[in-house]
Amino acid sequence: MTISTYPLFESHDDFVDQDFTVCRSSIRSVNDYLESFDEELLAIDGYLAARTYLRHYAENPLTFSTYRCQVERLLLWSLNILKKPITQLKRLDAEAFLEFCKNPPASWVGPVIRNRFLDNKDSTTTLAHPVVINSKWRPFTQKTPKQFRGDLVNSDDQVSQGYHSSKGSMGNVFKICSGFYEYLIEEDLAGTNPFRKVNKKNQYNATPDEGAVTRALTPLQWDYVLETAEAMAAAEPNKHERTLFILITMFSMYLRISDIAGRSNWKPTMGDFRRDQEGNWWFHVIGKGNKSAKIAVRDDYVTGYLTRYRRFLGLSPLPEYQEKTPLITTLSGRSGLSDRQVRALLQAVFDNALNRMRTEDREAYEMDSLRAASSHWLRHTSATFDAPFRNAKDLQSDLRHSNLATTQNTYYHSHDQERAHSVKRLGLRDRG
Hints:
The chain is 47% helix and 6% strand.
């Protein structure tokens, strides 16, 4: 087991340019580092979760750097110090990490900010990766007087005095790490937010997350996403009819990844679509906490997409009673896909849709949030679109929220566009 602390994430420009559909780092030495940890630490899964979260804040280089700093420290600490998967942290773990950040050990602190990665001087073949981890990089940096920094650039010396975080810095640690776990919960990657339960939260002076995004596509973005998925299916049906089916299934029924990929005790089948005596279709799931539920299925989905995918598979147009056909399979026909595989398929659609918008010269503000989109956005987007037309209790039941207030507070509010429109034409003098 390695105990060295190495950088995990690229500089801003390299980060945004990488292929997010690939479930590994773009840097080979980072992959080697992650693979050096014991399997039970789920280092690669933790890395991928952190990478997707950081993508939400990649529009602004400064914001990205701030968020990368804290999430990277947390992941390195959980792997090297706590020796526990980052998705399984508890309240006491969160409190221990906060204390760790106040005064980290000297081995984690560098005297100057160093490059994260260096050119690979040993790269003699085309197979070698062009960059490698900078072993002198450290997760924390001690403030050094400007006149001494030049002497320290090439030095291996550690800091000579203890590192201490300010109250403002600790507020950032708390805010960003707590936001990270809210994201993990949304993506069904963690059960709880350990930072939400931290004692004496007020000591960290946590401020509202100004960099947060809505995590819902705009109607224009959704049109591009759906049209892109349909175009991909038309171009390569053997590969992407399944992608289109996954996308529209998750969207139309507000599904989580685990609802379509399955859980350890349940794998969805076509037989989970069931029609009642009045002709209404329902999708039966085993959700979070092993709770069974049924979700109302809209007619447009059944006639337009469910039947389409079933015909593509050579099945009857509609599911049959107690049908055992897996809901989704691998391209080779094996039952089920992993959460990671489903996320990669959807990420390819989001990325291709964004490229289409760029090619068609859409305005930057029309594309911005799509860059951060993830699988869970489909659930938020669909519920946001449907809320004005559905009874709150009905939407609550299909979203499987235990509390009606969660549904109302999240989806039944004045939309930003409507609020802006209501005031933008009001003059300061003549009101009538």
